[in-house]
Amino acid sequence: SLAFNVFDGFLYATSNGSPSNASNVDEIFRIGSDGTFANLGSPVSATDPTVVWDSDASTIATADGDGNYYVLAHSALNDGNLVLFKVDLEPASRGEPVTFETLQSYTFSNQDFRDFSFDPVTRNLFAVGNRSRNLLSIDLNDPTYAIVSQTLTRDETGSSTGATWFNALGELFVFSNDGVIYKVDINALTIERFGAGIGPTTQNDGASCAFRPGFSKSVDAREHLPDQVVTYTFEIGNPTVATFAGFSLDDTLSYDGQW
User: Fold this and answer.
1) Per-residue confidence at 23, pLDDT binned at 50, 70, 90?
2) Residue with the larger pLDDT of the pair 199 and 146
3) Rounded CA separation 152/133 (Å)
4) Within a 13 Å sphere around the CA of 63, how many CA atoms are in the beta-carbon half?
5) Residue 59 Cα to chain centre, angstroms
6) DSSP 8-state class, residue 254
7) Contact assessment for residue 64 and residue 70, using Cβ atoms and an 8 Å cutoff
8) What is the sign of the dihedral through the CA atoms of 58, 159, 180 and 238?
């Protein structure tokens, strides 16, 4: 349930009620850049502060660029089925309890993913299914908050998926428990093995900041023959509301190529 809140620079997560303190299930923790934890307690209803949210120790959460934290969790008040919560993190800056609202109470309890990530361009929550080629999404502009599934082509996740995140270029990544990072193109509906991660895990989670400009450089092939044209591609991503103009690019090529 790890998520980065760009508004205050903190990471947020829900407690899974570890054996050492099973009583703190559902409580939210704020994590600083120095690694310190602050227990913010359980969110209360935005309309009735006497009502405390009811959710399990979910691993599925993300944050948008407006200081909101989205959690998909099971709820006993919804007969154990899934509920999509929206948590306003701003009150924590004033030392007050964070508040929640229920966006959707679903009629089913099973889902095929372990994390999702907020896309600032489409305002969708995206996830990749376990051991599959399924791309799942929830459109926050749609008041029904339906979970939509689309089929990806190319590779298939080889294990349960965990950490899911976007970068500033709008690229979606997912880390599976078999230790592999996959890259997903949400427009072309493709998934490909991107590289090895930290090795196999039993569970994993992570977060990123997709709300600042990004830059990448790529080449059309790993090897070229003498006299062949080498094509470099530069990409600049700007998911912010600011307009960037008048910047310049200086790219110096190295001469350490191997022949």
Assistant:
1) low
2) 146
3) 5
4) 29
5) 11
6) P
7) yes
8) negative
Alpha-carbon span 209 to 184, nearest angstrom: 17
Question: What is this structure's pTM?
Answer: 0.83
pLDDT over threshold 70, residue 153: yes
- Give the whole-angstrom CA distance, residue 204 versus residue 56: 18
33: its two tokens: 């850049």
Hey, how many other C-beta atoms are within 10 angstroms of the C-beta on 44?
18
- Tell me the torsion sign for CA atoms 103, 78, 135, 12: positive
- Beta-strand runs (E) in 40-110: 44-45, 60-63, 68-74, 82-88, 99-105
Alpha-carbon torsion (124, 28, 88, 11), positive or negative: negative
- Of 89 and 241, more confident: 89
For the chain, the residue count is 259
Which amino acid, residue 188?
Answer: A
At residue 125, the pLDDT reads: 97
For residue 86, the Cα-to-chain-centroid distance in whole angstroms is 15
- Residue 256: both structure tokens together: 């350490």
CA distance 117 to 211: 12
Q: Are 128 and 145 in contact (CB under 8 A)?
A: no
